[in-house]
Design a protein that fits this description.
Layout (H helix, E strand, L loop, with lengths): L12 H10 L17 H8 L1 H4 L22 H10 L15 H22 L10 E3 L4 E11 L2 E6 L5 E5 L3 E6 L2 E2 L18 E6 L3 H4 L2 E8 L5 E11 L2 E9 L17 E3 L4 E6 L17 E6 L20 E4 L4 E6 L6 E5 L6 E6 L35 E3 L5 E6 L12 E5 L4 E8 L2 E10 L3 E7 L5 E6 L2 E8 L2
Antiparallel strand pairs: 1-2, 2-25, 3-4, 4-5, 5-6, 7-8, 8-9, 9-10, 11-12, 12-13, 13-14, 15-16, 16-17, 17-18, 19-20, 20-21, 21-22, 23-24, 24-25
Helix pairs in contact: 2-5, 4-5
Length: about 475
């Protein structure tokens, strides 16, 4: 293996070796008369590919796709190798050429390319219907429950065993005794079904057997083609939606145009509170603005009243429903079955998908800090941490496109109890995440590449239910031990 520990550029070898010989090993970022591309792919091609190969496969420098790093495999060590180099081993320092933001984007790009190489080397289960599949702790079968759904976004069970499923286009469907009712529920509120917007989350009240309330969260149409997440509750009677009440609606002047990042999940706690998420709607700065609802997780009483102990009730101009802020696009929320702690996943940009333990009044950083970069390969920021902003418990870089999450609460898979199951859209996988206190101690990909996963729930029968989009269907994991 070549002694080169990281990157080199044939066009800059002479310049950077001279620079490294004349400056201390921890270079400052300084303006240099070198054209630096904006797109990180071009940055790699310009400064790295001549030694490390166009696809990171290695050449005169070592491979960057085999996850073997001579000077440290964590993000900070890789970034330090880029900035400071190892001139004695022929690796120049690029800190005077690439600023911190570009360096961070290059680390994300290396992670992306390395993950693709790892996927080519690794076999992950791709189970056929009803075939027995082995995982680390249990064997299972993947069984069909319902087909013919149009982007099933959210699932919820009623006490009598019926399952409710939202379709993003605006339909609420019922699955009963293994059969999908052909007609959707009539009389639903008008839904703004554009882009990522539509009828999104559904959840029955914890005391549904007594009060019959069902909660819906959806993209509500506003003035001038705008929209914002709205939460209502109602009841089902003779296949109709009745008794609707508004639980949360932002003032119309706070609605936003655009077709992305509605977030939107619902979860109750045991004290009569409802938590729900709203994505930042593609308006990055709104996530840090307490006078706007987007980019936040909110908390209200189950009837929509504002709890007196919400963190920003007394803050001038702040929306009193806000529980936490600095979120990008949180599409998974659940509470730990034993501790009651609130956990949430959110989409990063290109890289930086997050799992957070969400606490009262905390700032989760978007867009000031992130472990990702823009989709076009340019930096979002040069910072991954800042005082007063929370770090994710873990982040997935490259992105897996996290969607719904659920803690397993059943008995059918006893060794999975209290583990967190995480769905992924882009990576088309279901992950099992083991949490010990506030740390993730293990992850396992249970299966992959059989469809984009939109939601996952722990069913009352102890099985794990998964909603796939394209083609839209519901399947469940049943034990085969």
């Amino acid at each position: 293996m070549s002694p080169h520990p990281f990157l080199m550029s044939a066009g800059l070898v002479t310049f950077t070796l001279l620079l490294s010989a004349q400056t201390p090993p921890a270079p400052a970022v300084a303006p240099v008369n070198v054209a630096v591309p904006r797109d990180v792919k071009e940055v790699y091609a310009t400064f790295c590919a001549s030694c490390h190969g166009a696809n990171l496969e290695g050449g005169s420098g070592m491979s960057l796709a085999d996850d073997v790093w001579k000077y440290g495999a964590d993000d900070a060590s890789i970034a330090r190798s880029i900035r400071e180099g190892y001139p004695a081993n022929g690796m120049p320092a690029f800190g005077a050429v690439l600023d911190e933001a570009k360096t961070r984007s290059l680390v994300v790009y290396l992670r992306e390319m390395g993950a693709r190489a790892e996927e080519r080397r690794t076999t992950v289960a791709k189970p056929a219907d009803r075939a027995v599949t082995a995982s680390e702790l249990h064997r299972y079968r993947l069984e069909p429950v319902a087909t013919g759904l149009d982007v099933p976004w959210s699932m919820a069970f009623l006490p009598d065993g019926r399952m409710l499923v939202t379709e993003r286009e605006g339909r609420l469907r019922v699955i009963e005794n293994g059969r999908l009712h052909p007609r959707g529920i009539e009389g639903l509120p008008r839904v703004w079904a554009e882009g990522q917007g539509g009828l999104l989350a559904v959840a029955p009240h914890p005391d549904f057997a007594t009060n019959g309330w069902i909660y819906l969260a959806f993209s509500d149409p506003g003035p001038g083609g705008s929209a914002m997440t709205k939460v209502v509750r109602g009841r089902l009677r003779d296949n109709r939606w009745v008794d609707q009440e508004t639980i949360y609606a932002a003032p119309p002047d706070l609605y936003r145009s655009g077709r992305v990042h509605f977030g939107t999940r619902l979860v109750f706690d045991g004290a009569g509170y409802l938590f729900f998420s709203i994505g930042e709607r593609g308006r990055q700065d709104d996530a840090q603005t307490l006078s706007r609802p987007n980019g936040k997780i909110h908390r209200v009483h189950d009837d929509g009243r504002i709890p007196a102990d919400n963190p920003f009730v007394a803050t001038p101009r702040a929306l009193p429903s806000i529980w936490s802020y600095g979120h990008r696009n949180p599409q998974g929320i659940d509470r730990h079955p034993e501790t009651g702690a609130l956990w949430a996943t959110e989409h990063g940009p290109r890289g930086g998908d997050e799992l957070n333990r969400v606490e009262r009044g905390r700032n989760y950083g978007w867009p000031v800090i992130t472990y990702g970069m823009n989709y076009n390969g340019t930096p979002v920021t040069d910072r991954t941490a800042q005082e007063g902003m929370e770090q994710p418990v873990i982040h997935w870089t490259p992105s897996i496109a996290v969607s719904g999450i659920a803690f397993y609460r059943g008995d059918a898979f006893p060794r999975w109890r209290n583990h967190l199951f995480v769905g992924a859209l882009a990576r088309q996988e279901l992950r099992r995440v083991v949490i010990d206190g506030e740390r993730v101690v293990h992850q396992e990909v249970l299966f992959k590449n059989i469809g984009r996963i939109r939601d996952v729930i722990s069913g009352p029968d102890g099985y794990i239910y998964v909603a796939f989009e394209g083609p839209g269907r519901i399947m469940r994991l049943v034990p085969a031990d």
